[in-house]
Design goal:
single chain, Cytidine Deaminase, domain 2, 7 strands
């Protein structure tokens, strides 16, 4: 038997002022997207903004449904739209922000497991890392490689085992 360890590193920014200019804009777009989320049940609005390699920004927000499993997260809305409209253009970065009762959360929010799977599959498909920025009022976390969120991912190689 062997004991193995998985660890990741991330950057903590003390606020948006420390972000690169393109990521500041991405955070602003994520916040605008969150404002338009459809979250009448949870009052938990999430916005995601995807920066493509061609410079385009695609946004998405969570869409709730009274039949709860029929809703979808902001990250998947943005990524699926980006992949549908720009199938050959890589995703460079994603910014994610959340509001509860119309107030931005102090701490960052991280993607659910389904979104982590979709993000890591997008990264595998394009063969380039996707940077992620999790926006909170008090601090922001950034990671340089989406696979850090899901180190034991289910991928196409898993289907051939």
């Amino acid at each position: 038997m062997k004991q193995k360890k998985i660890s990741i590193s991330f950057t903590e920014f003390s606020g948006e002022a420390e972000l690169p200019e393109d990521i500041k804009n991405l955070a602003i777009q994520a916040k605008k997207a969150a404002d338009n989320a459809y979250a009448p049940y949870s009052k938990f609005k999430v916005g995601a903004a995807v920066l493509l390699a061609n410079g385009k920004i695609i946004t998405g927000n969570n869409q709730e449904n009274s039949a709860y499993p029929s809703g979808i997260c902001a990250e998947r809305v943005a990524i699926f739209y980006a992949n549908a409209q720009y199938p050959k253009v890589a995703i460079n970065a994603i910014a994610i922000v959340a509001f509860h009762n119309n107030k931005e959360l102090n701490s960052p929010v991280y993607p659910c497991g389904s979104c982590r799977q979709v993000i890591t599959e997008s990264q595998s498909k394009q063969k380039n890392p996707i940077k992620l920025y999790f926006i909170g009022q008090k601090f922001i976390h950034g990671i340089d490689d989406a696979s850090h969120m899901l180190p034991l991912e289910f991928d196409k190689e898993s289907l051939n085992s």
